[in-house]
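can u do me a favor
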């Protein structure tokens, strides 16, 4: 479960990236986070994961305040950042073992999980190669594996489908649904409205750092009965 209470973040003392944002992602839900470029999505996700500290407000992961007990909260988070270009001098298996060491995953358990993810995302043959030689899509699949190898209950994913081939994207979306169906929480940002429309239980639309809608797609379309989701989104964010 993710709870954000009245969170605000300002940069350079005058640029308000996120403005008094509150939302809850319940257990068993997939929530899509959509908005124009620069709307505040990535900043919000970074505050959720403890990468950025909010100027005001609180973030709770499964009831734990991430500012007061960051290590305890982060144990429950699987986070995919907005760029997969990190730790590129490491071999794939070295990177996954590093992450596994951080989360203190026993050798036998990590071996099984890495093998499962590698098969699912077709990474088995490249685990022994340095990631700087990977394609963007392969790096993205490696970040997915690293984020989920410790079996976190809360998934916070920043544009997780970018760069993935259709099969891998399908597998990840299927995993997101399975994770939510098991009683866990999934929040992901996306620019692909069709994905949000088909996959999510609820949708957050953010514009200029403010949540202008949070609810189900059915609730949204009731407000705009003669328009599809794309038309509604463009109407609501036309001043972006």
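np, heres the sequence
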């Amino acid at each position: 479960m993710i709870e954000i209470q009245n969170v605000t973040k300002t940069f350079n003392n005058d640029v308000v990236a996120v403005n008094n944002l509150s939302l809850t992602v319940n257990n068993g839900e997939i929530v899509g986070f959509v908005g124009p470029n620069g709307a505040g999505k990535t900043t919000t996700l970074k505050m959720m994961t403890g990468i950025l500290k909010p100027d005001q407000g609180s973030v709770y992961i499964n009831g734990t305040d991430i500012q007061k007990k960051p290590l305890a909260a982060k144990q429950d988070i699987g986070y995919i950042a907005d760029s997969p270009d990190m730790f590129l001098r490491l071999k794939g298996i070295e990177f996954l073992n590093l992450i596994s060491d951080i989360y203190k995953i026993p050798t036998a358990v990590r071996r099984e999980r890495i093998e499962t993810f590698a098969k699912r995302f077709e990474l088995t043959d490249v685990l022994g190669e340095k990631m700087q030689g990977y394609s963007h899509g392969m790096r993205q699949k490696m970040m997915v594996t690293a984020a989920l190898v410790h079996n976190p209950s809360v998934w916070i994913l920043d544009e997780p489908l970018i760069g993935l081939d259709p099969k891998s994207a399908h597998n990840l979306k299927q995993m997101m649904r399975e994770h939510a169906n098991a009683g866990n929480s999934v929040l992901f940002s996306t620019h692909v409205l069709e994905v949000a429309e088909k996959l999510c239980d609820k949708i957050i639309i953010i514009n200029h750092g403010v949540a202008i809608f949070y609810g189900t797609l059915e609730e949204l379309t009731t407000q705009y009965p003669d328009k599809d989701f794309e038309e509604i989104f463009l109407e609501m964010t036309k001043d972006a």
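The radius of gyration is 18 Å. hope that helps!!
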